[in-house]
Design goal:
The protein has helices spanning about 20-30, 40-50, 70-80, 105-130, 155-175, 205-210, 215-225, 235-245, 250-260, 265-270; strands at about 10-15, 35-40, 60-65, 90, 140-145, 180-185, 230-235. By secondary structure, it is α/β, with parallel strands linked by helices. Strand 5, helix 5 and strand 6 (about 180-185) form a beta-alpha-beta unit. It is globular and about 55 Å long.
């Protein structure tokens, strides 16, 4: 059975850039959805609105840090007061800390990545679920990462946060069975500004080799929603990492390491070099 997406009201975190912006565009221009974007930067969300042209009136946003549970609670209160029943919650906001050895990561950075990548989705579901269940077809879509399926060196806490998203989503799916459609998405590397925190950016040719354009990822996620897919692995790198990590677990991690070392990038060499 397909999910009727046309005309739905969607709450989407991280709508100011990358995959979130691309999904906003896809949902509004192709499916006439009303999208309420969540983010911290008004300028980025305004840019998203301007890109929608004459359909910008179908996009609105709320400014708050997704890692702040009070922000989600206030959003739920506002929607309830305005009589707005959301149909779909898409937890997309995320951050990729600098590649580094686990022992070098500060406690502050450990907590921040878990708050943004994992707990933000917990807070959003706890606050918005009562409203979502008022829809005739409630849906929750959580964006994890290929790192949830095949963690790599230098991303211990990023991988842990995305693994937490995966496991929590799969539990939630069963808890809400028969009540709501719940989907987990594990995309591979994408051409977004999530790399902006790195010490040195991957060269364009390397990024082209391993990354999928965010517009393509967004289209596949939205199409997957219409087909009520409960699990999506998107990008050739994600598919391959998932396969090899399942069937050749130890060997696959050694292969990822060799690829990272061969890239010549400082952000990888610092992980494997001598102290």
């Amino acid at each position: 059975m397909r999910y009727r997406l046309n005309g739905r009201t969607v709450i989407l975190s991280g709508a100011g850039s990358g995959i979130g912006r691309a999904m906003t565009t896809e949902l509004i221009t192709r499916y006439s959805c009303r999208v309420i974007g969540i983010g911290r930067h008004a300028s980025r969300l305004e840019e998203t609105a301007e890109l929608l042209g004459d359909k910008k009136n179908m996009f609105s946003y709320s400014l708050f840090d997704v890692a702040d549970p009070a922000g989600w609670s206030a959003l739920a209160d506002r929607l309830s007061a305005e009589g707005i029943t959301p149909d779909i919650l898409i937890n997309n906001a995320g951050m990729l800390p600098k590649f580094d050895r686990m022992v070098n990561v500060s406690p502050e950075d450990m907590h921040r990545v878990m708050e943004v990548n994992f707990f933000s989705g917990v807070y959003s579901v706890k606050s918005l679920l009562p409203l979502l269940l008022g829809s005739d077809s409630p849906a929750i879509v959580n964006i994890a990462s290929s790192a949830a399926l095949a963690p790599i060196a230098g991303t211990a806490f990023y991988s842990a946060s995305k693994g937490a998203v995966k496991n929590a989503t799969e539990s939630l799916r069963e808890e809400l069975s028969g009540k709501a459609y719940v989907a987990l998405v594990c995309p591979g590397f994408s051409r977004t500004n999530i790399f902006r925190e790195q010490h040195d950016m991957p060269p364009e040719k390397l990024l082209d080799l391993i990354a999928t354009p965010c517009e393509k990822i967004a289209r596949r996620i939205v199409r997957g929603i219409t087909r009520r897919r409960q699990f999506m692995t998107i990008g050739a790198d994600a598919v391959l990492m998932d396969f090899f990590s399942k069937h050749f677990r130890v060997l696959s991690y050694r292969t990822y390491r060799r690829f990272m070392e061969a890239s010549g990038l400082k952000m990888f060499s610092d992980i494997f070099g001598s102290e």
